[in-house]
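User: Hi! I'm working on a homework problem where we have to compare a predicted structure to a textbook description. Could you give me the structure for the chain below?
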Amino acid sequence: VSGARIVVKSPQEFGDGEIRVIEAQVRRGSEADTRNLMENLPNACYLGGVFIRGCMVGAGAIKRLGVHLSTVAHCSRFPDLKGFSAEIGHFCVDLSHRGRGLAKRLVESLLESCRNTLCATTKEDNQAMQQILEQSGFKPVGKPWASAQSPGKKICLWIEPWKLLYLLKWGRAYDGARKRCPWFVARRLSSQEIRGSLTPGR
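Assistant: Happy to help. Predicted structure tokens:
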């Protein structure tokens, strides 16, 4: 989109006022649980904003998982999340600016800035976000589970499988430097290895 500017910084690099703008943006348009949002945003790995003519029209974050990790692993029946330290999410774009590729650009910018092994969760019927995740190299794993915030809806877990394969095959945490573990590493592994590594817990 002509004139759109993507800004990705650590929370410490954003001012308090800017974080409050991101909070308001996420509360307006994100499908994520926002109950502890103002506590979580300052502790995120990275925050991102989409600006058009100086106004924020979209936001996103890379959130630290913490104790939420065990909950996601249990609910999804996918126990192989031990090496994952952060979750990409809190995405929202104003309705008047959707369908213009802004969310995809924001996801790409956050991924370029991140040195964490990431997962993502999204509602099962959020086809737009799932398409962006798939285009960014994420794959769905585990079993969908019921959303506590949206009755009747289910949540899906997505991961970057090449990072997980790196963790399983070499047995040490991925350090985020894509030079040391380029995306095509997973392509070089056999399909049997990939299927075996991504088998959900029973």
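For your comparison, note the following. Strands lie at 4-9, 46-52, 55-64, 86-93, 118-123, 139-146, 154-159. The chain has eight helices and seven strands. Good luck with the assignment!
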